[in-house]
Amino acid sequence: MMRRATLALATAALVLQGCAAAAIPVVAGGLVGRKTVSDRNARKARKAEAARIRSLPAAPMPAPMLPGVPPAMQYLYASGEAVALDLQAYMGLANYLVGISADLRIGHDVDSVVLAPGATLEQPKFLPCAGKPPAIVFDIDETAIHNLGFEGDAARRGEAYDAQRWADWERTGTRQVAVVPGLTEVIRVARLAKIAVVFNSNRLAENADATAAMLDGVGLGPVVHGDTLWLQGDAGSTDSRKDGRRWAIAAKYCVVAMSGDQLGDFSDLFNAPGATPAARREAAAGLHTTLMWGHGWFMLPNPVYGTGLRGGMDDVFPPATRWTPTPTPTPNSTPIAAPIAGAPAPVAKEK
Ligand SMILES: [Mg+2]
Questions:
Q1: Is the pLDDT higher at 32 or at 38?
Q2: Into how many domains does the chain fold?
Q3: From the CA of 299, how far away is ligand 1's center (Å)?
Q4: What is the pLDDT of residues 223-267, one digit of tens each?
Q5: Is residue 201 part of a domain?
Q6: C-alpha 253 – ligand 1 centre gap (Å)
Q7: Is residue 70 part of a domain?
Q8: CA-to-CA distance for 298 and 293, rounded, in angstroms?
Q9: How many angstroms separate the alpha carbon of residue 271 from the centre of ligand 1?
C-alpha cells in the first residue's frame, strides 16, 4: 500500500501520457501540483453544481416550521468544515487513483481492497484481481450525494426516520440532492484512467430506475443496474449488509478503492451483532484496518444518521473522564466584577 502512495506522485506523468490528452492534463496537473482544489475545472464543476441546485423550482414551504435545524445537519450540509473533510477524502482518493493507474500502466500487480469471505479484520485476506478490469466502488447516500430534500423534510417535521417516507424519496426525490464536494473530480479522474465507477447502495433494487436517473441527473452516471449499480435485493441481499454485493462486484472487477460514510460500506465485519461503540472504534483502528484508511478505503463524514450514532453516557464519556465544575462562589465569598460598559460580549471559543 505504501508503494502505491509513493508511486502516485512519482509516476503521475507516466499515467497521463496517452490518456485523453485534451482533458486529463488539466485534472492531473492540479493533482501533481497540489493545486487540485483551486483547479479551474474543479471550481467550475462546483459552481455548476451550486447553480443547478439554485435553479431548482422552489416547492411550497410545508408548515409548521420548526425553529431550528439539527446541529448535525448544519454541520454536514452547510459547514465549510464538512466541505474541507469531503475534499480531504476525495482529493486523497483522486491522488490514490493516479497512483493505481500508474501501477496498472507499468504492469505492477494491483490488489483488491475487498475482504474475502472468511477473512477477519485481524487477519485480512483480499479477493484476487487477476485479469479483471479495475473499478472503484462508492456508496450513494451521504457519500456520492447529500439528500437535501429528504433531510430538509425531516428537519421541518422533527420526526424520526420513517422507512415509507424514505422509499417515497427514493422514487421521487431525484433532483433535490447535491453532489458531495470533490466527487465529480474523482469520477473524472477514474473514467479518464479507465477505472469503472460502481455504486453499491442500500437503496432498494425495485427503485433502480429512479436511482439511476438521479445519478445521471447530477452527472455521476450513466450506470447499469447489476453491473455498475448494485442495490438492496441484488446478489441475494435482503438487508443492509453489503458484503454479498461487494463479492458479486469483485467477481467481475478488480476493486481498487471503496468510499463510504459508514463502516459497513467497507466490510460487514464492523457490524457484528452486539458490537458496542468501543468495539467498533477498536476495529476501525486495528493494525491492518489502519493501513486501509486513505489507501484503498476512503471515509466521508456523516453525523446525521447511521450505525455510528449509538452509545449511552458511559459509552461516549468513559467514567474515568468524569469532571464537574468548581462550585460557583457565593456573593459573600468573592465579589463578582461588574461588566465594563462598552466591553464586547463574551463569545464561545471555536474548538
Ligand atoms: Mg451512505
A1: 38
A2: 1
A3: 10
A4: 999 999 999 999 998 899 999 999 999 999 999 999 999 999 999
A5: yes
A6: 21
A7: yes
A8: 6
A9: 14
What's the predicted TM-score (pTM) here? 0.80
Nearest 5°: phi and psi at 229? -140, 115
As separate numbers, helices (DSSP H) first and strands (DSSP E) second, the chain gives 14, 7
How many angstroms does the Cα of residue 140 sit away from the middle of ligand 1?
A: 6
Which residues form the domain of 215? 37-56+63-91+111-307
Question: How far, in Å, from the CA of 263 to the mean position of ligand 1?
Answer: 10
Range of weakest confidence among 203-207, 278-282, 328-332? 328-332
Residue 325 lies in a domain: no
Residue 347 has pLDDT above 60, yes or no: no
What distance in angstroms lies between residue 262's CA and the mean position of ligand 1's atoms? 6
Location of C-alpha cell 476512503:
298
User: Considering the domain boundaries, does residue 24 fall inside one?
Assistant: no
What's 121's domain CATH number? 3.40.50.1000
| Lookup result for grid cell 487477476 | 130
> 230 CA to middle of ligand 1, Å?
13
* Rounded Cα–Cα distance for residues 77 and 272 (Å): 30
